[in-house]
Design a protein that fits this description.
heterotrimer; A alpha+beta (195); B mainly alpha (213); C mainly alpha (340); A: 195 residues; alpha+beta; Alpha-Beta Plaits; two-stranded antiparallel ribbon; two-stranded antiparallel sheet; 6 strands; 27% helix; B: 213 residues; mainly alpha; Fumarate Reductase Cytochrome B subunit; 10 helices; 74% helix; globular
Chain lengths: 195, 213, 340
């Protein structure tokens, strides 16, 4: 069985935020909620790198472990989804998640957060596939249409990859080898490369 | 099925009982009081009525220190309840969609919860005082206790009903409200409608006799 | 073709070698030229502090690439808090049961006297019960959120428990701030007689509070009651402050802040809940003629003599006969006065 994964190649990400925009548009995500975000390290300095981050659909997901109402489940493809009918908006998944993936529509007094929203790997939720209920709560279900997540599909530099983890690691391995090859050709101490 | 009952027939039934019951009770009181006072007027009845309506908002100076808890708890509860009954966003929307056809600006979420907290704490204080003070316990009737507990349960389920997407909790609140509305006209809860007329009546009676109270 | 494959293998070896060599302390600078992505992730995974960057997303913690405190919090909640708090509650209930079996219901040695003394004013009792009601609601809802996944989901199912837990969360979040007022009021009304008097209190504690033998001397409140009072006040303050931080996530609290206050809140609350079981048992079923004191405000003179002898000596002048109506405070008698 395939395990769906995201992979973001920091060598290719150009911080265009198109993945963020595509995600918001595809799923009609409200203000304040960002299922995906691009974080730039050392912005404007030598060694600047960007990564696009969303739910990484962990095998042993911390959010699912700490949820007081057990609203998370993992699909056969290894996608971590949650049931908004059960979610109580306590925010624990946000504390536990390493990637800051769980998002809440509000941050108001008396701990009013609303129901948690996060990246679904474009796989919707527990509702019937492609129903309007599912669309309202979780956004588009592209997986059921045989399509991969839109953020990765439309990434212009192919920095963001989504799909079967084995295939992704093959692709990445090849990229590393090619980069290694070029380094081998030019010499690893090439002074043009910063850092 | 239960949802249909609570949202449909029971809602209309309780609304009818509430409206007809309140009107009937008020009419009964007004006609019961409508006897001509044959005494010679020594003062203004309407002046006394107006004075009494407002003066009773403040406790009498002699007893004020002894009923401080009731006054504080009473104001916390009633003002909080009034604010959340008429200015909580879900209530405003409910009134607009199901009863009146128009709405008004609701309070912000946090303010309405603060109002609810005041109402909650006030009601707990008042009810405990009723239970724990020997005299008020003795003069309390079953009606008083039912009214207090019913109101408490309505407020409790109201808190629960604030979660979006939990239908059962919303229904529970609506159901307890319907029970309250059916109970309302036949209980001490009628004071919500009668407290001003009764103050005015007493004030007019006093005023006509020249009693300054 | 064969040359190409060989080249690739050499490259792989080279990369592998350099990745190995890249481990601290001697990090060769040339590594970044080969696989900076790998280096970036390795930096990010150096789990001692958050790696922050810049981002277009404006929400607390959005600039943190990896939240390093999350794993520690998860382990605390799942491996320590939930099992240990469940165990603590079970142990305390078991100890109370054991105490009950060993000691039975502790009766007044000389029976009722027919005389009574005012012990609590109406305000004190209202404050006590207001705090008690709110404490019970908050404790039950809190425990529902903490332990419900293990105990209640098998009973109610995931959807049913979701509804219950949602209700518990709202009650907890909305009534928490009210508890602040109740506890403050309780503190003000009760603090005067709870100031420790070291000599008497120490003696009381050395005698085990008379739990297993002769009564120990005690003033208005014995050392056990004083300990509970100060525990409730000080740990209660910790619960309140941490609870308010958690209840108002509007000041841009970071995740590690919330985790810290959750840690404080959960430990303090469990301590209070566990000790409150002892308080509830001592106040209700353990001792004859005790519950009615917080109920009516009056205690039997013999009760005062036995449990609070030093206080009894101070107030014995205010003894009064029990009015006929309340001589037997059993439920039947009370109902008849209610309907009167």
């Amino acid at each position: 069985m395939a395990r769906m994964k995201f992979y973001c190649d920091a060598e290719r990400c150009i911080e265009c935020n198109a993945c963020v925009t595509a995600c918001k548009n595809e799923h009609e995500i409200p203000w304040g909620v960002n299922r995906r975000r691009v974080v730039t390290i050392k912005d404007g300095e030598p060694g600047e790198r960007s990564l696009s981050v969303a739910c990484m659909h962990c095998s042993d997901a911390p959010c699912a472990a700490v949820c007081p109402v057990d609203c998370f489940y993992t699909t056969g493809d290894g996608i971590v989804l949650h049931d908004k009918d059960i979610c109580i908006g306590c925010g624990y998944c946000f504390y536990a998640c390493p990637f800051g993936a769980p998002q809440f529509p509000e941050a108001a007094a008396f701990s009013s957060r609303g129901k948690m929203d996060k990246c679904t790997f474009c796989a919707g939720g527990p509702e019937e596939d492609q129903s309007s209920d599912e669309y309202k709560k979780y956004g588009r279900n592209r997986i059921s249409e045989g399509k991969l997540p839109l953020c990765a599909e439309m990434c212009s530099t192919k920095a963001l990859l989504a799909g079967d983890g084995d295939v992704l690691s093959d692709i990445y391995r090849k990229r590393v080898i090619n980069r290694g090859a070029s380094a081998f050709e030019w010499g690893v101490n090439n002074s043009k490369i910063p850092g | 099925m239960i949802e249909y009952l609570i949202k449909g027939p029971l809602w209309y039934f309780s609304l009818a009982v509430f409206c007809i019951g309140v009107l009937w009770q008020l009419a009964r009181i007004i006609f019961a009081a409508a006897k001509t006072d044959l005494s010679v007027a020594r003062g203004s009845a309407s002046g006394g009525a107006w004075r009494n309506v407002f003066s009773r908002f403040v406790p009498h100076r002699e007893i004020a220190p002894r009923i401080r808890l009731q006054v504080i708890g009473g104001y916390m509860f009633h003002l909080g309840l009034f604010a959340l009954l008429f200015f909580a966003a879900p209530h405003v929307h409910f009134l607009e969609n199901h009863l009146l056809g128009f709405g008004w600006t609701p309070m912000p979420h946090w303010a309405f919860i603060v109002a609810a907290q005041f109402a909650f704490f006030g009601l707990i204080l008042l009810w405990l005082r009723r239970m724990l003070n020997a005299v008020s316990r003795l003069i309390s009737t079953t009606d008083d206790h039912i009214a207090a507990i019913l109101t408490f349960v309505v407020m409790l389920t109201g808190c629960l009903a604030l979660g979006q997407g939990f239908h059962a909790l919303n229904l529970l609140h609506l159901f307890t409200v319907e029970l309250l509305m059916i109970y309302f006209p036949f209980s001490c809860l009628m004071h919500a409608f009668t407290f001003i007329p009764s103050r005015a009546f007493t004030g007019a009676w006093f005023g006509r006799r020249g009693i300054d109270a | 073709m064969r040359v190409h494959t060989l080249l690739m293998m050499v490259c792989l070896l080279l990369v592998g070698f350099q990745l190995q060599a890249a481990d601290p302390p001697s990090k060769p600078p040339e590594l970044s030229s080969i696989a900076p992505g790998a280096e970036l992730w390795r930096d990010v995974r150096q789990r001692d502090q958050d790696v922050t960057g810049t981002t277009q997303v404006r929400s607390p913690g959005a600039d943190v690439l990896i939240n390093v405190s999350g794993q520690a919090w998860r382990e605390y909640r799942m491996q320590e808090l939930i099992p240990l708090s469940g165990a603590a509650i079970a142990i305390v209930l078991f100890v109370i049961l054991l105490f009950r079996l060993v000691r039975g219901r502790i009766m007044l040695e000389n029976g009722r006297s027919g005389l009574r003394i005012l012990r609590f004013t109406t305000n004190q009792r209202v404050a006590h019960w207001a705090t008690a009601i709110l404490f019970s609601i908050l404790g039950l809802t809190g425990l529902t959120l903490l332990l419900g996944r293990s105990f209640l989901i098998p009973v109610f199912g995931a959807e049913g428990f979701g509804t219950i837990a949602a209700g518990a969360k709202f009650l907890h979040d909305y009534l928490g701030p009210v508890f602040v007022f109740a506890l403050t009021w309780l503190f003000v009304l009760f603090v005067r007689d709870n100031i420790p008097s070291p000599k008497v209190d120490l003696q009381w504690l050395l005698k085990g509070g008379g739990l297993f033998g002769k009564h120990a001397h005690a003033p208005r409140y014995n050392a056990g009651e004083k300990l509970w009072f100060w525990l409730a006040s000080i740990v209660g303050l910790a619960v309140i402050i941490s609870g308010l931080v958690l209840d108002f996530p509007i000041f841009g609290q970071t995740r590690s802040t919330m985790e810290f206050y959750h840690w404080v809140h959960s430990i303090a609350a469990i301590v209070l809940i566990v000790v409150s079981f002892g308080h509830i048992y001592m106040g209700t079923a353990a001792l004859e003629a005790t519950f009615e004191v917080m109920q009516t405000g009056y205690c039997d003179s013999n009760w005062a003599k036995e449990h609070h002898d030093l206080w009894y000596d101070e107030v014995k002048d205010s003894e009064e006969p029990v009015p006929q109506q309340q001589a037997q405070p059993d439920p039947g008698a009370r109902q008849s006065t209610d309907s009167a």
